[in-house]
Design brief:
single chain; 237 residues; 76% helix; globular
Length: 237
């Protein structure tokens, strides 16, 4: 047992070292993603007649429904948002081999989690770019499609609700007093989070529109425009 725990600790240190080394290259890449995503969204506008609007309309119904409910009936976030926030920390802690020993969620809205190891920027910043509820619903959508052979309209509505829920949660949790931002670094957070959110939420919307092929198309656009912008940047250096 001691041998295994020692091996895990060693691998964890290598993971943390790797994340440390790629931290600022990743931040730079996310800076390129933002204008690339804006160009990709405009490309979608140009080919709007080719999009599968049936899926997007039901998805939009879910977005609008939750936005209306959240705006007019629930004025502040509660325990559910805090629990999801801490669970996202836990997910990325476990993914980088940091054993989690405790999670606390308070009725007042605060929460915390405790893990072993030094930690890394990915654990600290995960809840601000990874919409756990929306991705869980996306995987549920995939499962439903595999089981019954198609995706019912109500599933797209539910996915829209999940995405809107995460958008509201992100908006409330993103403020300068977040200790997670201090752990990851304020400058890094500003560089990383906008681009990362373009990718995560763009992935979900692309999936809604056309499934797996929609995701591949979305990332091809991002890569194409990011390369173009990078080449233009090199001309000015």
């Amino acid at each position: 047992m001691f041998f295994i725990s020692g091996r895990i600790a060693l691998i964890r240190r290598y993971i943390n070292l790797f994340l440390f080394l790629i931290k600022w290259p990743v931040a730079f890449a996310m800076l390129l993603v933002v204008p690339a995503a804006l160009q990709a969204f405009y490309h979608y506008y140009e080919i709007r007649n080719q999009l599968i609007w049936h899926n997007l309309i039901y998805f939009s119904i879910g977005l609008a429904f939750f936005a209306a409910v959240r705006t007019f009936f629930i004025l502040r976030h509660g325990v559910a948002e805090t629990m999801e926030h801490e669970m996202t920390h836990i997910l990325f802690a476990l993914a980088t081999l940091h054993p989690v020993s405790r999670m606390d969620v308070h009725d007042s809205g605060g929460g915390s989690m405790t893990f072993s190891g030094d930690g890394n920027w990915l654990i600290a910043i995960a809840p601000y770019f990874f919409p756990l509820t929306a991705f869980t619903m996306m995987f549920f959508t995939i499962a439903i499609n595999q089981i019954i052979g198609y995706t019912p309209n109500w599933v797209f509505v539910a996915l829209g609700v999940a995405v809107c829920y995460n958008l509201f949660a992100f908006a409330e949790q993103f403020h300068p007093r977040q200790t997670d931002f201090k752990a990851a670094g304020y400058l890094f957070t500003l560089c990383f989070v906008p681009g990362a959110n373009c990718l995560t939420f763009g992935t979900i919307v692309a999936f809604v529109e056309r499934g797996y092929s929609g995701i591949f198309f979305f990332y091809r656009l991002i890569l194409y425009y990011a390369r173009q912008d990078f080449n233009v940047l090199l001309e000015y250096i």
